[in-house]
Amino acid sequence: MKLYGSLASPFVARCWLTVTAKGGGADLEMYEGGIKSDGYLAMIPIGKMPLLVDGDTAIPESGVICEYLDQVLPGPALAPTDPTALARMRLLNHITDLYLYPAAIALLRLPADGDAAAIDSAKTDALKALDYVEHFLGETKFAEGDTLTLADITLHGAVNLAKLVFGNHGVEGWLEPRPKLKTWWGNITANTTLKPAFDQIQEALDAFRKRRAEEAAKKAAAD
Predict the structure, then answer these.
(1) Contacts for 4 with CB less than 8 Å, ≥ 6 apart
(2) Can you give the pLDDT at residue 53?
(3) Which of 42, 60, 78, 87 has most Cβ atoms within 10 angstroms of its Cβ?
(4) Is residue 209 predicted with pLDDT exceeding 90?
(5) What angle do CA 179, 7, 184 make, to 5 degrees?
(6) Chain Cα centroid distance, residue 63
(7) 94 CB contacts (<8 Å, ≥6 apart)?
(8) How many domains, in total, are found in the chain?
(9) Helix 150-168 to helix 83-95 angle, to the nearest 10 degrees?
């Protein structure tokens, strides 16, 4: 089983965290020729990552991939069996994908010295999305209940991205008025099962930022 993509993408990282939580069972690599190559586009005409290939089955979209991995890989289940708990987990995933990720990505794309009104609007949207998460988080160790679920994995990437972009735009203290989210963040970042993947993700992010800085420096020198 192959997972294609870079861990610098929070969506690829989401899938890799799922593999890690399940105890392994898939290999991570970049697709030879890239995501715009004919071979890749033949499997996923969307031309984005991640992509999971399991035999003759090619599955795009990180949320779908994570659910598939949870079903087919051995290891602890990452979805509750109780219908109410399962609905709460899926709701947190949905809110994260529909509100938090788009707001954080919009803010990421705005330079710190860019349009002030656009930046303020994106900040407001991102903070509002975190309020939605705060509302629906349980007062438990993990996002839904006392065991790790896909909600923790989905939410980690989005909150980690929000942390990055808030830092870029001088937003401080954003966890303080959200006590459930603050407690959850402390718990999930200290999780020993996921730590190897967290370290790999951070290494990939550091390498990506270094490359971008070097590219920007070369462009500035050429201009």
Answers:
(1) 28, 29, 30, 31, 35, 40, 49, 50, 51, 52, 53
(2) 97
(3) 78
(4) no
(5) 15
(6) 10
(7) none
(8) 2
(9) 20
Same domain, yes or no: 113 and 172:
yes
Secondary structure of residue 60 in the 3-state scheme:
strand
CA 21 to chain centre: 14
| In a domain? residue 216 | no
CA distances from 17 to 13, 42, 108, 210 (A): 6, 26, 22, 23
Same domain, 29 and 107: no
What integer is the mean pLDDT of 119-142?
96
**Cβ contact 39:53 at 8 Å:** no
Chain center to CA of 70: 16
**pLDDT band for position 213 (50/70/90)?**
confident
Q: Write the DSSP string, 13-48.
A: HHHHHHHHHHT---EEEPPTT-TTSHHHHHH-TT--
User: What gap in Å lies between CA 54 and CA 65, rounded to an integer?
Assistant: 11
For residue 218, being part of any structural domain is answered with no
Sheet (strand 51-54) strand order? 27-29, 2-4, 51-54, 57-60
Pairing between strand 51-54 and 57-60?
Answer: antiparallel
Q: Which residue range is the domain that position 159 belongs to?
A: 83-191
CA dihedral 162, 166, 168, 171 (to 10 degrees): 180
Enumerate residues 6+ apart whose C-beta is below 8 A from 108.
161, 164, 165, 168
